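Quick one: co-fold with adenosine-5'-triphosphate.
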Amino acid sequence: MTQTENRPSVSDTPLVPIETIVSLCKRRGFVYPNSEIYGGVAGIYDFGPLGVELRNNIRRYWWWSMVQTNDNIVGIEGAIITNRKVWEASGHVENFVDRLVDCKNCKRRFRLDHLPAENVEQNKCPVCGGELTEPRTFNLLMETYLGVVEGERMQTYLRGEACQNIYLDYDNVLKSSRMQVPFGICQIGKAFRNEVTPGNFLFRQREFEQWDLQFFVHSSEMQQWFDYWKERRFEWYQGIINHKDRLRFRAHGSDELAHYAKQAFDIEYRTVLGWQEWEGIHWRQDWDLSRHSQYSGHDLSYTNPVTGEKFIPWIVETSGGVDRTFLFLLLDAYEEEPDPAGKEPRTVLRLHPMLAPVKVAVLPLQKNKEELLNTAKNIHKRLQRLMVSQYDDVANIGRRYRRQDEIGTPYCVTVDFQTLDDQTVTVRERDGMTQVRVAINELPAYLLERVTWK
Ligand code: ATP
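Sure, here it is.
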């Protein structure tokens, strides 16, 4: 992906408080609290008109980079509800648990694994120093029931992680496509967790969306593919943020590693909450396919068509989230820029143009001249077929630029009196606020070149 021209250096801009993003999201229609008029539900959100555009762009870009541009990867879309045995085989029924403690004094709740070691040792609340309760264990899976007749209803779960569908469909993909090991299956989909400490806006929700790549390899090539995907995924995140210094790898310590994992890394992003996981790169060995073979009685081994060797493929997993990407991108993009003229600071969302919810705004310079309005509306109608375009003729031009800066629109097209003479418009770019004249006929190609991924 290319970056917008005139992008200023942003490495020294301060970390943005989460509340600033929550307020922007509500005010401008990115994210709303779910069922707000009834008091809401903790950890569940709805996405508004701009939010849904941003989410779709994030999803599409991931899908394009992972599925469409790799010959050895295909995509699936699995169901949210599966046979309950899936969750027994995966280990979630037994082990998908969080241990939590409450502060007896301030009543705050903490996940035991998120507390600093000294607080655990001293049994002390990290906020007020009060005494903590004994740890209690909770399973994170959300139960649901299929069927209508009491006594015959089948209990199962809303999926706790989206990737299980990939293991379940792996054999069908092999039989119905021309894939051969090494190959990958991708999926984007909702997951549900009864998180004991939902919070920090979209960071930890109860209903959220994950993206996964499960890449199936021969054990002898595991290290090479693990290293490959680890680097590719890091580059992917680097390509969509401004603050490259806020991205890092964190290697899992031996006490965090699953028994089958030789290594694991989190790609982390630095926010006001500290360094936080954005995506996990996991060494899953043959754990998932072996367990499902064992629990289902269905042999999930693979036979090499050339050598005849039969084996259970090992898996490299890259698992991230649409919602954390949404939140981290907003935190990364938000800036309040001082105005040299001493007026109010300019709020600008420096989102990558290819992910920005609105690509272009078409603005007639003045409202009282019919010809300007008609020309601007025609340009907007033409652009709308190619990208998300907004038409706006309310308030002075400066105010309208500010409105677009605040939602991250990378280009504003202004139709002025010169347009009526020579059929050119002013294109103003968001980050550097530079302006160029472009012929109306060349405008679609000019903008497409800058807002589509390649
Ligand atoms: P944590 O330790 O923070 O609970 P995890 O290691 O259990 O997370 P995974 O199961 O590996 O997370 O999930 C993969 C990705 O899904 C995470 O990197 C994150 O982007 C996203 N994710 C996980 N849990 C949530 C959640 N509750 N809300 C939003 N996104 C989530």
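If it helps, The first helix runs from residue 18 to 28.
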